[in-house]
């Protein structure tokens, strides 16, 4: 089966693409969920790791993976971040330095649209749509040709996966309003049937929420939007984001990995069979909503586990006033 798994890593992002040729990891969350998933699925080889940017909730879970010598990682793609001084960023670089010294992993310090041809596989297309080489030239902290400063979210890589079946998925990391405006200004096609909503449904930088939502919805035109959120973290997704989505695309389907406090003040007291068989951080404290979501790439239909129907039934039963029902 060819699939993309959107792991429930709490507040953060982590996706794993599995096809007949192997696996690609896009970001790693902040905890050990990715490693636990790899071990549960008996995956000990990763072809490519794509790191959208250096935020802790995107890189923390990769450190344990890189430190596991039994897990083969062929290549890592990441953009430099000279302003990042966190211990976690240093630990990630240290773990990669060991792999580089042992000649077990290639480290590519360019993650721009130039690398798309390297990432594309036999059964699917993996495109890095942003940043462009021109934006990357000024780097994080520098000013792009539009005169605006590149902060880490502005430079967050945007990746699109297109299966041979035509099913498509956009993973924009934490891209903000400035980065999105550059994408649109450059006439980059970001249309995709499934959208992992950027910045976990939080604020899009300094821009207006409604304007940002309208731009991304109208340019992506998704049928399904997934929010990778952690219950109790920043109260994501923001109600204003959901409201603006419903205005832009009234019939779009929405799923969250964990049950937001904005949807229900309580968590279920019973086991939910629609998501209990897959590794998910929220299972530890019973806060999953959809949990980890597996998307089937072998069909042109949006087929996922948990199914859209089972997820909707859970929300209807336990959180009827959830934001996705608005």
Question: What would your notes on this structure say?
Answer:
There is one protein chain. By secondary structure, the protein is of the alpha/beta class. It contains nine helices and 14 strands. The chain has helices at residues 33-40, 56-67, 87-101, 116-119, 133-138, 177-185, 209-220, 239-248, 308-318; strands spanning 3-6, 15-19, 22-26, 45-51, 72-78, 106-108, 124-130, 158-163, 168-171, 194-196, 224-227, 253-256, 293-296, 304-305. The strands form two sheets. The chain has an eight-stranded mixed β-sheet with strand order 6-5-4-3-2-1-13-14, with helices on one face. A six-stranded mixed β-sheet has the order 7-8-9-10-11-12. Strand 5, helix 3 and strand 6 form a beta-alpha-beta unit. Helix 2 (56-67) packs parallel to helix 3. The mean pLDDT is 93.
3D shape: globular
Uncertain regions: pLDDT < 50 for 5+ in a row? none
- What level of helicity do the residues show? 25-40%
- End-to-end gap: 34 Å
Query: How many beta-strand runs?
Result: 14
Strand content: 15-25%
Backbone CA Rg:
18 Å
């Amino acid at each position: 089966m060819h699939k993309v798994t959107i792991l429930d890593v709490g507040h953060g992002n982590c996706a794993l693409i599995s096809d007949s040729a192997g696996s690609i990891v896009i970001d790693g969350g902040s905890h050990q969920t990715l490693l636990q998933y790899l071990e549960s699925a008996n995956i000990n080889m990763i072809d490519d790791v794509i790191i959208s940017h250096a935020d802790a909730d995107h890189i923390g879970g990769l450190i344990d993976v890189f430190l596991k010598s039994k897990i083969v990682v062929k290549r890592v793609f990441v953009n430099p971040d000279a302003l990042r001084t966190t211990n976690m960023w240093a630990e990630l670089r240290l773990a990669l330095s060991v792999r580089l010294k042992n000649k077990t992993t290639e480290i590519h310090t360019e993650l721009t649209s130039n690398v798309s041809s390297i990432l594309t596989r036999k059964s699917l297309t993996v495109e890095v749509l942003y940043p462009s080489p021109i934006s990357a030239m000024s780097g994080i902290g520098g000013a792009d040709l539009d005169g605006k400063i590149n902060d880490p979210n502005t430079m967050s890589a945007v990746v699109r996966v297109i299966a041979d079946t035509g099913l498509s998925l956009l993973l924009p990391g934490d891209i903000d309003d400035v980065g999105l405006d550059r994408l649109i200004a450059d006439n980059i096609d970001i249309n995709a049937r499934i959208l992992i909503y950027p910045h976990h449904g939080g604020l899009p930088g300094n821009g207006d929420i409604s304007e940002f939502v309208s731009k991304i919805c109208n340019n992506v035109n998704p049928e399904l939007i997934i929010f990778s959120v952690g219950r109790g973290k920043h109260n994501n997704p923001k109600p204003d984001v959901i409201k603006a989505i419903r205005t832009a695309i009234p019939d779009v389907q929405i799923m969250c990995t964990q049950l937001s406090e904005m949807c229900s003040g309580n968590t279920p007291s019973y086991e939910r069979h629609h998501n209990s068989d897959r590794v998910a951080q929220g299972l530890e404290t019973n806060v999953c909503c959809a949990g980890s979501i597996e998307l089937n790439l072998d069909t042109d239909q949006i087929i996922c586990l948990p199914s859209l129907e089972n997820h909707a039934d859970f929300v209807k039963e336990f959180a009827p006033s959830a934001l996705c029902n608005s």
